Amino acid sequence: MDEPLIRDISDTARWMAVFRARETDREDALFRDPFARALAGERGERIASGLTFTEENAWSFTARTYLFDRFVTRLVQHGADMVVNLAAGLDTRPYRMALPPALRWVEVDLPDILDYKEEILGDATPACVLERVRLDLSNEDGRRGLFADLGRRAKQVAVISEGLVIYLMPDAVAALARDLAGPPVFQHWVLDLASPGLVEMMKQSTGNAMNEAGAPFLFAPAEGPPFFSACGWQPIEIRSLLKTAGKLGRLPLALRMFAMLPESDGAQGSRPWSAVCLFARQAL
Predict the structure, then answer these.
(1) Residue partners of 25: CB distance under 8 A and separation at least 6
(2) Interacting residues of 232 by C-beta distance below 8 A, sequence separation 6+
């Protein structure tokens, strides 16, 4: 039997690395990731070429990476001494960003994907203190223990989770959010969020590839970012991927008019919408 286009959730990290590599190749690149092409490998290129929806919407992945970079920079400048990257995948921010040498960066993900990343990166040197934790985040006791430990080792923690929550059921997202809100030093959380309308469009466009990989698109709260308010996190800044891509000159001509339309930071319903959201911890 032919091997599926996407074998499992870890292959999505190879897929996303392709778009970082393509942005890096541009003369006017918004960011540069010198490791992305090697990390993506032939399989990443095959996935990107096989899913035309993502080829046509590569601007959204570029805007997402750009926004996460900007939020990380800002949070570190404002005192975060630890960044915890949940489902870190093949992210290389500790290597490609200008970060303080004393900053502690903790990557959390499944063993196979972190082993692969270490093999490809070889002797590359990170800009800050880097630690990798091999953990399945669905292990609630394991993650609570990890969060408690990290909370004792830092004064101000910024959490990022790029491309994670869309693969989780709403109850699982809420449980994760509550666990993150436990340690008082976990002050901020940056994540990307999609509307129900966009997720339905993505399901139709990717066919059965994600379902066959055991990674269906699941989380698209009807209420938008306010979903997290009951879980200990208050949205304080919402940055639309469409509008960001428009300002950065990455939108195709057919979408530029839509980027000028007003939009709310709350419920989006059937409207295709996605954003990177900055949340601040609030008292439960």
Answers:
(1) none
(2) 177, 178, 180, 181, 281, 282, 283, 284
Residue 178: both structure tokens together:
């509550």
Helix (H) or strand (E) holding 65: helix 58-77
Q: Which CATH architecture has domain 11-281?
A: 3-Layer(aba) Sandwich (3.40)
Q: In one letter, which amino acid is 87? A: A
Q: What is the pLDDT along the chain (284 residues), one digit of tens a residue?
A: 478 889 998 999 999 999 999 999 999 999 999 999 999 999 999 999 888 777 778 999 999 999 999 999 999 999 999 999 999 999 999 999 999 999 999 999 999 999 999 999 999 999 999 999 999 999 999 999 999 999 999 999 999 999 999 999 999 999 999 999 999 999 999 999 999 999 999 988 886 888 888 889 999 999 999 999 999 999 999 999 999 999 999 998 877 777 777 777 777 878 889 999 999 998 65
Beta-carbon count within 10 A of 96 CB: 20
The pTM score is 0.95
CB 68 within 8 A of CB 74: no
